[in-house]
What we know:
This protein is α/β, with parallel strands linked by helices. Helix content is 35%, strand content 10%. It has helices at residues 35-43, 64-68, 70-76, 122-134, 150-162, 167-175, 184-199; strands at 52-56, 59-62, 80-83, 104-107, 140-143. Strands 1-2-5-3-4 form a 5-stranded mixed beta sheet. The N and C termini lie far apart (34 Å).
Amino acid sequence: MAWDSLCSGDLLRPKIRSASSQTPASQRSAGTPSLEELRRLLCTHARPTGHVDEVWPNLYVGDLYVARDKTQLSQMGISHVVNAAAGRFHIDTGRNFYKDLPVDYYGVEAEDNPNFDLSIYFYPVARYIRAALNSPRGKVLVHCAMGISRSATLVLAFLMICEDMSLTEAIQTVRAHRGICPNFGFLKQLQELDLQLGSGKGRGAEAC
Length: 208
């Protein structure tokens, strides 16, 4: 079973990308926190994490159980599902799984591994979520195995890119509703996104 990593450690999987646990001070902007500051922000006094929580209007972060509970998805009115742990050896749902529901499906075959480059999905998934939320009665579930690392990272990136939030603001927004803890590699990638957006190189709102 593929579980997301907790703050205490990361799952060991084949290396896909080299991830440093520290960002040189010269690469940080004044508004971008260090990785240690991000870890403290995320993992100190975290809220309990259930199967699913609404973290932004009509945007939900959840785990594999809610993703497979078609009755609950129907009751919630979910119109779009983003599976951040897609693939045969992870949470193998897909379009066919939801064919009896009015649900649009988007799969991301991501490893909960600090060396996995999840950042290549930041903008495509952010645009997908934005379009889904703008659709009539749009409600989006973004899930992975436990709903704390892969899915949370993609939702944080969405808030930064499409809602013009800093990384700190995005974390505070999501943590007000759900305990999350992206692995340190994903935090590094979010930190890099924060630096890009802060420098104006990739200001994201117009990209959505």
